[in-house]
Amino acid sequence: QATMSSLQRLLNDYKSRKDAVKSQVTQLSQEYDALKAKIASSETHKSLAALEAKLRTYAQTIFHLQEFVESKQRQTDFIPIKDSCNSIIDTLNVHAKKMAIGA
Fold this sequence. Notes:
Layout: H1 2-40, H2 43-75, H3 79-102
């Protein structure tokens, strides 16, 4: 019987705590919503949101331009072709020297 009354008392305590926390959460949620609405109607918030949108647009543009520049760089990278041509020329020069010495 003592255990039952003890458990019942604990249950009542927890219910009252739950109700208190629930009312605090409700109150804080209302305060939060009021502040959120106040911020949303603020001119500073509106201008910051517009600037953030501009920044996102600029970031996308920069990304696309970087990709474009990199692709053009790959298309105009003639160093491997130059190296190959120089190698062929060196080989031809060696053969020409051998031919000149042998002739």
